[in-house]
UniProtKB/TrEMBL annotation:
Catalyzes the phosphorylation of the 3'-hydroxyl group of dephosphocoenzyme A to form coenzyme A. This is Dephospho-CoA kinase. It is an enzyme of class 2 (transferase). Its main location: cytoplasm. The keyword Cytoplasm applies. One of its GO terms (molecular function) is ATP binding. It is found in: Cytoplasm. GO terms for biological process: coenzyme A biosynthetic process. It comes from Bacteroides coprosuis DSM 18011.
Amino acid sequence: MIKIGITGGIGSGKSVVSRILQVLDIPIYIADDEAKKLMVSDPHIKKSLIALLGNQVYLDGQLNKKLLANYLFAKPEHTKEINDIVHPRVKEDFLTWCEKNQECPIVGIESAILFEAGFKNAVDYSILVYASEEVRLERAIKRDKSTAELIAKRIAAQTPDREKLLLTDFLVYNDGNIAILPQVLFLLQELKKTI
Ligand SMILES: CC(C)(COP(=O)(O)OP(=O)(O)OC[C@H]1O[C@@H](n2cnc3c(N)ncnc32)[C@H](O)[C@@H]1O)[C@@H](O)C(=O)NCCC(=O)NCCS
Ligand SMILES: Nc1ncnc2c1ncn2[C@@H]1O[C@H](COP(=O)(O)OP(=O)(O)OP(=O)(O)O)[C@@H](O)[C@H]1O
């Protein structure tokens, strides 16, 4: 089995790439969805988040997203603190999920913070979905009905693409000018050669 990691900054289009891979029968673990589930179900994560942010980090058993987002995106130390609580458990969960999908020749994980959260050594190949910061900002503002200021804070919480480019094995260029389907199909062809 080959494990691939799909990453890219906010608004790069990694969910679109993951969706294409899923349609092509490649199971993808969506780290953001699973992290959100674990943040309300995992006793160790809950205990650590409450110790750091107080009981109000949960409201009626649900994550207080506003409080968490305000803390997480305020400064890099905060981002690291939260990621260090949440993502080791996500990684463990991903590896268990991989065992359950043993029969699949290729499986993937989608995470905006594949490198930051230490998933690189859990995958065989990483794929960076790339679009310029300007394009990503515009897409994220539109998708999340947000503001440039708030999205810029999220961009600042993620490793810049110039650093990710040095760590990645493959690149999918998604600036809106080059079709992504042929790029994904080519990528799969290359990956299959390694099986
Ligand atoms: C902070 C939270 C509550 C904000 O929720 P909200 O609905 O406002 O935003 P949403 O979840 O749609 O996130 C939008 C984007 O922000 C970025 N982002 C989210 N969490 C992080 C993080 N820990 N580090 C860097 N960027 C992040 C991602 O690009 C994400 O797609 C939420 O993002 C969250 O629970 N984050 C922790 C889980 C996580 O680390 N997910 C991202 C990596 S897999
Ligand atoms: N090539 C494209 N042309 C136009 N719009 C696009 C393109 N790729 C993605 N989008 C749109 O941009 C937005 C962001 O894409 P997507 O949700 O896949 O990003 P993401 O990398 O998963 O971001 P996040 O980290 O925030 O989850 C979506 O609304 C998506 O439909």
